[in-house]
Amino acid sequence: MAAKSCQDGHPAEAFGWAARDHSGVLSPFKFSRRATGEKDVAIKVLFCGICHSDLHMIKNEWGISSYPVVPGHEIVGQVTGVGSKVEKFKVGDKVGVGYMVGSCQSCDSCHDDLENYCPETIVTSGGKYHDGATTYGGFSDIMVADEHYVIRIPENLPLDAGAPLLCAGITVYSPLKYYGLDKPGMHVGVVGLGGLGHVAVKFAKAMGIKVTVISTSPKKKQEALEHLGAHSFLVSRDPDQMQAAMGTMDGIIDTVSTMHPLFPLIGLLKTQGKLVLVGAPEKPLELPVFPLITGRKIVGGSSIGGIKETQEMIDFAAKNNITADVEVIPMDYVNTALERLSKSDVRYRFVIDIGNTLKI
Question: Enoyl reductase (ER) domain spans which residues (predicted)?
């Protein structure tokens, strides 16, 4: 009951859409947010992307959801108020909030600007804040967040198509940088051409990397090559194509969140190549060790990025005109959009026009 009383004590009236149970159906929801503290930024939400992890949360597919759930962690908007000790932002600034709104600020990860790996990371939706209150995400009219976790959005970055970069963008940018797969002339594969994959192609190309899209669907070839500008396309179910590409890639960013074999992907890597997993299948994948040993290859993982790196990614995106391919929808279409998302029927990210279509 303590968390409820904390929430009830919050003075800022808010309105959004929430899931009440594991059916995942969203409906209008009145709640409250905390007063703007001395280090807080108050934000009018204008757009919010829909991420696949929102689907997991509203249906409690990870077993960690506490209802009601207000989803949304690809949030962009405009600053409407700042606390007395806020230094980075002023009223009127365009800003964003991604997957996290808090961390301990004292562990090694936090000291290294890796708040995303802090054991006490507070997620934007469905987490517990320092005062015990549940965190509610961006499918709502307003946000209040500590300035440290707020990202400045450059003037030339469109807010609607820029919103998904706060999750999908940093999720692929960070491993490209950390694993050294950002050097011009390298050859990197991108597995899966969805919300993460299409952005990975854009970032890799902007870094001067040769990009091959790897997909189970031959139907995505034209999209990959002509629309996104990938250099080549591999059908992962075609043994001849896979055999011809063996040992040609410096690294692979694997964005797929369903069960799939890793052995063929490891075969595509050069000696000392790196396979980086950023998708999150619900069941363990089988990892063949022999090809790792014989080629000194690495299988690694990566999860979003720290605040400093997220700002770096957004600035890089603005400089290189990188945005997500989005379908902008009204708030009352959200349940249909979630159904379509579960069937991968979106090219490539839904973004809700909160500012114009969220009505009480």
Answer: 24-352
